[in-house]
Design goal:
The structure is a homodimer of 357-residue chains. Chain A is α/β, with parallel strands linked by helices and 357 residues long. Chain A has 13 helices and 13 strands.
Amino acid sequence: MELHGGNIYKAARKLGIKKQELLDFSSNINPLGIPQSVRDIIHNSIDELTAYPELDYSRLREALAAHNSIQPERLTPGNGAIELIYLYLQQLKPRKTLITAPTFSEYSRALASVDCRVEHFPLCENAGFALNSTLLTGEIRSGGYDLVIICNPSNPTGRFTPLEEIERLSQAAAAAGSRLMVDESFIDFTGEMQRQSAILLRAPHIFVIRSLTKFFALPGLRIGYALSYDREMLASIESRRAPWSINSLAALATEVALKGKDYINRSIAFIKEEKERLYCELNKIEGIKPYHPAVNFILIKLEGSLRSGELRERLLKRKILIREAGNFEGLDDSFIRVAVKSREDNNKLLEALRAEV
Amino acid sequence: MELHGGNIYKAARKLGIKKQELLDFSSNINPLGIPQSVRDIIHNSIDELTAYPELDYSRLREALAAHNSIQPERLTPGNGAIELIYLYLQQLKPRKTLITAPTFSEYSRALASVDCRVEHFPLCENAGFALNSTLLTGEIRSGGYDLVIICNPSNPTGRFTPLEEIERLSQAAAAAGSRLMVDESFIDFTGEMQRQSAILLRAPHIFVIRSLTKFFALPGLRIGYALSYDREMLASIESRRAPWSINSLAALATEVALKGKDYINRSIAFIKEEKERLYCELNKIEGIKPYHPAVNFILIKLEGSLRSGELRERLLKRKILIREAGNFEGLDDSFIRVAVKSREDNNKLLEALRAEV
């Protein structure tokens, strides 16, 4: 089973084609592609690479702070969201962590790297994997967790839990002496970042993770950041991490990309419309059940006897790569995940699914 | 005091000029600049950034393995040499480490991040900071160290310790149950990598660090690697690290750069000749004493009353940035370090030093 979007390389090699020839629905990237302003800055900044990145990334911090209307000292940039997850866990050293399931498998891997025990809190398939904050707060209160991890919007379910529910969890966590990490890597796609982010709760036991590479279609460049009202945590992370972890092009690209309000608004508007269209069209296909998404990807259940591995192989022959979702804790090989891409690409996926399911 | 080359940003801001207007002798980068083949691949690969980097970096590994005539499983790539130093120390968790002094200050910072006690082994200024392996093996044998760190060629002294001396240290370390980390970030500049690297000893207690960003003038892009015959150590590092730490452009640039044998040979030949010329010319200037370099930078002692901070300020007014060396353990504010740059740039430095010292 392919664990990550990165495996487009292997899939293409196996087929003996270039990876550009594959339609990649396995990776949740903004279908509008890299902003032109970012292409330009990369083209024009190659000479910047002869200098080390700025040690404190002060310009990058200011750009991220302005984007979030927050003070620069409440954030730290990272070499992708994933670096910040590892740094946070290395700093916190939790002994027992609660994760909702299904969710992004890298949390468990990162927790294993700090020898932390992991418990999964299963979300109900029949409720569309909605997060039931009443049940979850009960578990948080009684379970003795050092840390609770929520992915919001959730990968792979595509559900978005509203801030008032997150607030209930946050209060339960605070009362129980637990920390709360909220991974908001996909929140930009919802258009609700300014109104629904957990950072708005201003609670020092909350650590918010953000990615920029998904929304700006730059996963190869690696850039993310963390937001927190726990100054001591941010300071510890910064004093103990390896220097220069963010490359200069990623820093420059971010500064430019965050200024591109038109691209940001067009992306949100496009996803808002196209995810609904793709969801509705998927819903019409017999034998599969899509879960309604808040974001740029859709979780799908195969309702017949066809397994995700077999479907992946069939679609690969049509040069379409999907993500098997059976390696998400709590899912099995009756689940797949597809990205929302351009209308044209999505139509090719729909056509292929109609033929192969 | 400015700790790192990255502070060209602050120096330029302070002067109110662009950093391109500063002649940067503070950062030890190949004066031949970025290879044309690397510029081309970056220009032509921006679309690659829409995919995640390859999860196992198999092409990058093969390129590095071929460059070192070693099996790919004996190396691991990293987000700059510094990431690998941190990962190695996090894995090893040494309690007591011996570092020769003066040396690169980041070792101490990285050791502090794993709460390790550090002892410094002072190298003798009168001996030109040569590593005396007889004295050092004695200390290794008796000191009860978990780890010994050697920078070879040494930053900031520019000395290169021959392999037979490293072998003596390695044997002493093995006998004492110590590990040996050899940072060879500057070995490419010597032209002796294939004959003098510590990896040739094939000893499983040795961990070799390499940088590619200095030799290929790409410190902003971040790429390094580690070599070791300790498979378990490499496997542990790989299983516990955050994924995708190397950006796609760094991986592609490395694959292309390592094929550029002409650039590699021209760089080695240029440094070999120009470092000697610069050293000889520096030697003629009254009031300063350069230490003979094996590499692309030169440590200089100010013999009069002029302190490094004052000289740095004077040279900055001439738009020349040097590195104060007083923050290297064992040195003080009578030391500076300068890079070997183009003949024209070096002549400007010489002229400025003749006027200001």
